[in-house]
Amino acid sequence: MSRLVFLLEEPSIKVLLEGLLPRLFPTLDILCIKHEGKSDLEKSLPRKLRAWNRPDDHFVVLRDGDGKDCKALKASLSKMCAEAGREDTLVRIVCQELEAWYFGDLEAFADVFSAPALRRQAARVGYRDPDAIAKPSKELVRLYPAFQKTDGARRMAERLSYGSNRSPSFRALVEGIARISSLPLPG
Hints:
Radius of gyration: 16 Å
Strand order of the largest sheet: 2-1-3-4
Oligomer: single chain
Low-confidence stretches: none
Largest sheet: 4 strands, parallel
Number of helices: 8
Order of helices and strands: EHEHEHEHHHHH
Mean pLDDT: 95
Structural class: alpha/beta
């Protein structure tokens, strides 16, 4: 099986994926390359894709939506990949921020952070569609003031699951990885 190379917007998503993916896909060979924000990722994307010299590697580009039109953003990044000769690159947008994935499984968040009161929040109307939360990182800090991005990513990597997560962008990433790696979806 070939390796999946993840080109990522920020350090916290790298921490999350390096803990999460070996649990969801134990046989998957991955390399996560973090960037220092959206502009760094987009600037280096064509150069990295053109210069990459391992023909069996496949790429996944993962970027926050941050309030942008996720479909238009995905189309733009896909076009950049195709122009760099890597039209088979899987492009996924985290709608709106990584922390929306945590809202997708607030029960797991409540367990990981020993905050049982957060379990009740999952049923609130504003949290039923985690990808629609405009600023999930700020909302998490409001609900759990001690939250920090990197620590949160490390801890949530141990608990996020495909089966119980309500975030469409999280599910789309996991489904895309399964498809391009020819692995079964995790339970």
